[in-house]
Amino acid sequence: MDQILSNITILTAAPILNVGLLIDGLLIGAIFALAAYGLALVWGVMNVKNLAQGDFIMVGGYVAWNLGRLGINPLFGVPVAFCLMWCIGWVIYRLVVSKVIRRDLFTSLLATFGVAICVQQTLNLIFGPDTQSAQADLPTWQFAGGMISVSAARLIGFVMAGLLAVAVILFMKKSRMGQAIRATAQDSRAARVLGIDTEKVYSFTFCLNAAICGAAGALVAIVWNVQPFYGTTYSIRLFVIVTSAGIGNLPGVIAAGFGMGVFEQFGGFVFGAEYQQALIVLLLLMVLAVRQIQYMTMRQAVQ
Amino acid sequence: MTNATQRTLLAMLPLGIVAPFLFPDYSNQIAVLWLMITFASTWDILGGQMGYNSLGNIFFFGAGMYICAIVQIGLFYDVAMYTSGSRTTHIVFSNAQYFTGLSLGIVAAGIGSAILAIGAGWIVLGLRGPYFAIGTLGLAIAAAEMMASWEFVGAAGGIAMPVFPGAPQTQKLFFYFLLFGLAYVLLIFLRWLYSTNFGLALNAIRDDEDKAEAMGLYTKRTKRTAWAISAFFLGIAGAIFGNMIGFIDPRDIAFPTTTFNLFMVVMVLLGGKGTLWGPVIGAVVFHTIKEVTWTYFLGWQFIALGLLIIVTIVYFQQGIAGWLIEKFPQAFGNKAQREAKKEEPVGKLAPQPEGAE
Amino acid sequence: MSANGNNIIQLHNVTKSYGGVIANRDVSLTVERGSITGLIGPNGSGKTTLFNSIVGYHPIDSGSIKFEDKEISSLHVPDIARLGLLRTFQTTRIYGKMDCLQNMLISVPHRKARFFDMFDREKPEVIEKAEHLLGFVGLYEKRFLLAGSLSFGQQKLLEFAMALMNEPTVLLLDEPTAGINPTLINGLLDRLKRANTQFGITLVIIEHNMRVIMNMASKIYCLAHGEMLASGKPAEIQNDQRVIDAYLGAH
Q1: Closest CB to C144 among B198, B200, B340
Q2: Has this prediction a pTM greater than 0.80?
Q3: How many C-beta neighbours within 10 Å does residue A91 have?
Q4: DSSP code of B78?
Q5: How confident is the model at residue B160, as a pLDDT?
């Protein structure tokens, strides 16, 4: 407790530290926002709540890490992970997700949870339980006399996340498949009647989401670190982001993603790194509780 | 079905009693089987009968474990001192102290967990479907993390439980019968519970909660009570198990979110949701297969678990009991055909002329 | 002017909008105790929304809803149901995996139930009443069938029987004849009338079938575009030019 209080005093005493935490939070939050967008996409289009999202991210991370070990700049891991996860996503869609789409919601949740466990344990078996990060050998810039450090890796990660996000959004707006996806998300029966092959749309959407996670994961490996079992924490994080923003609310999801990044940086500083998972989970419970209070006063059932 | 249920329950009693004597080498595994039956049956109260799939019921198991430990130790010694890593004095409990502590601890565990369920219910029971599932998962993980950083209960290092005063053989039998007794009482209790209006209310909430509310059913009250009942039995199970292992650890023993927590869901899905015997069948099948193959699958066991979840969910949704009920409806008391023929309908129609439909 | 004690439901200037669309605007109506009242209007005129507002499904923007002189516009669905105001759904809702008899048994009124009552077994009088009501709607022989396996028309009858089981004071019926085989409609109407005369239940019915509602109701309200267009006895409504125009001009 004293440690927590003293940490808070440090923050108030040296406001410049807050800026540093804020910047870090935004840089990391960009990656969260990207992955959260993918989650919201799959959720909105197919009503599948993908509990394996975080684990997809970890796979992407390990791809980048492996490239680093082979001597290739892990930044290339982003496109490689993107493509690899696209394929893996396709396999998972065919084997598991396509069969549970039309069932009740808990079924799809538990099915993806099963996938999550398989992925986590496979990663653990292959790569072992140590945390890894991909060294990108990029400089870290110091500002304000060493009080703020901004690593080039994180900045590049931010830029790449942004580029990918812009690419995806443009795709969704302009391309035929993008429009088909949005139509299916609004009303899948109507889409089918109008000749849209919803099976292809679902498959494409899931693959796209997996690929986005892969790319995000590669960035995570460069910017932070990965470990086979970190996936669950990411899944919960992303779930909190999407739940608090609301599925259809894209700008909200992005903003919440940044918010989460910032929240974690400050939380980690004040409470200590060991509390990271606890903080995220508590945030989840708070978000759910708030939602519930909202609905209770609104005289309607929670959806 | 009532007769078959009664007969099975009666047959179970002698079997359960002699098992540890017939198979002394496996007495611990059979004890854990009873624990699994408790896990599955309590999960099914909410999951199968009421339609609320919880991914965090292990919260009450661990809570009961810790409550019992605190009571057992706290009655005679200072808990913080006992659990501190820097303790050098060796602490011994007399026989009387051990058993008093254990009995009171078990009672406290059950009641304490039930109270926690009512509290947690305020936060989480207003949510539906997947939100409820994830919320409960969050609850379990949060509990694990909280306990892992609370010095009072030994933080991540856990608590070394008071040692059982007696030979290892006696200890094995003692805890076997505690777990067997718990599971047996639970099954009898559930058989009664599901035959009351409460059982109907649970099913109504599962089938259409909005309709139940629109008909004036006290859904909130029913949901909280159901969870409290689950929690009560889970808490006691945790108290017993913690003592049986002899050592409590927040992440692996008290709140094992990836093992026991998931097992309960898989067992019920495997055996069949929403029936009295489905969870039992699922527990037996799952536990037996797991015990037999775990050693052979070393390293791969969790992947096998994940695959089992996927396969059960995707291809075998109604579970073993559900499949049996579909194949042999008469054996399961599908009364529709039998009874409707016997009775005369109220307000009988005029007799039909010969040959008419 | 009849004393207010005779008006079991009173709506006064109820307004409800959904994200920009005004579903009900300043709707006022009264329902006389023991009567059968009809609510008609072309599609999209806000009839179901009004029902939803009355039973507590969503909050209203403004106005007052009184049931037995008690303001209920801020109460929740279960509380209003326990006061004796029930509704049936347009998409018939029953408990699919329970059999018909169980559907009836769980539909007993819960307003006087204390905590430990829920652990009782079903009393024989209750079972008898359930069977009697099932007989009333002609489902006695099917009482051990799963409700989900009944045909649509049978499910509607079951839903109706469940509502009767709950001993309501007022029953709001949302298109009770929709989807029912025309040859069976008379049987349903007969039972509705008997529920009103024998059990004394006040009925408020949304209907599109003019023959049905003109025959049954003693007073009819007509909504159009979210507003109250006309009200009066069936004969008056039938000849009201505004009502005719509303239906003909609805498309």
Answers
A1: B340
A2: yes
A3: 11
A4: -
A5: 85
